[in-house]
Write a structure and sequence with these properties.
By secondary structure, this protein is an all-alpha fold. It contains seven helices and two strands. The chain has a two-stranded antiparallel ribbon with strand order 1-2. Helix 2 packs across helix 4 (81-101), helix 4 packs antiparallel against helix 5 and helix 5 (108-136) crosses helix 7 (153-184).
């Protein structure tokens, strides 16, 4: 799918991924307590990682921006939705660079490494986002460093689920799409 990013099929798949990412947050979310913000456990990050791996940098990133950013805009997080969208860009860039270094070989080992990379990248981007949100709320820098760190539990949980679920979903999707495309020919 990465080779044909401007085809009608790629654009439709990008739109479907954006909708699935949105639903992955909206339907399957568990609120958690935190010092800063209103975090929750969800599968949006996992689905975004799968979209990036399956669709490539540009279309996967667009699906993530539309799905995650759209959720934020429509559900009370509009003021910080730009940070979520920026996180998607960073995760897409890192994931795509590592996948390119693997020569786009989607072996189970490589996809597991990529899933871990996605989870770890999300931890760093979420820490930065939480820190920026604290500054926007008027927190002192020292207190903000501590507050952002204290709010990392939901991010770590989401990152662990990303590292575990991304390979499962990626291979299920790759297998299903191969069978569907084989029947279509």
């Amino acid at each position: 799918m990465r080779d044909e990013e401007n085809s009608l099929r790629a654009w439709i798949t990008t739109g479907l991924f954006a909708a699935i990412i949105y639903l992955g947050i909206w339907v399957l979310r568990i609120p958690l307590p935190a010092v800063v913000g209103k975090p929750f456990i969800h599968f949006g990050n996992t689905l975004t990682a799968v979209a990036i791996l399956y669709l490539g940098f540009r279309n996967g990133m667009l699906a993530g921006i539309i799905g995650l950013g759209g959720f934020d805009i429509l559900n009370g997080y509009a003021a910080t939705s730009w940070l979520t969208m920026l996180e998607v860009v960073v995760v897409a860039a890192v994931l795509s660079a590592v996948f390119k270094a693997f020569k786009y070989e989607d072996t189970p080992k490589n996809i597991m490494i990529l899933a871990i990379v996605a989870g770890v990248t999300k931890i760093f981007t979420s820490y930065a986002t939480t820190f920026i949100e604290g500054l926007m709320a008027g927190m002192a820098i020292k207190a903000d460093f501590i507050g952002a760190f204290a709010s990392m539990l939901p991010t770590v949980i989401n990152s662990c689920s990303t590292a575990i679920c991304t390979p499962i979903l990626y291979f299920a999707l790759a297998d299903a799409s191969k069978r569907i495309l084989k029947r279509a020919r």
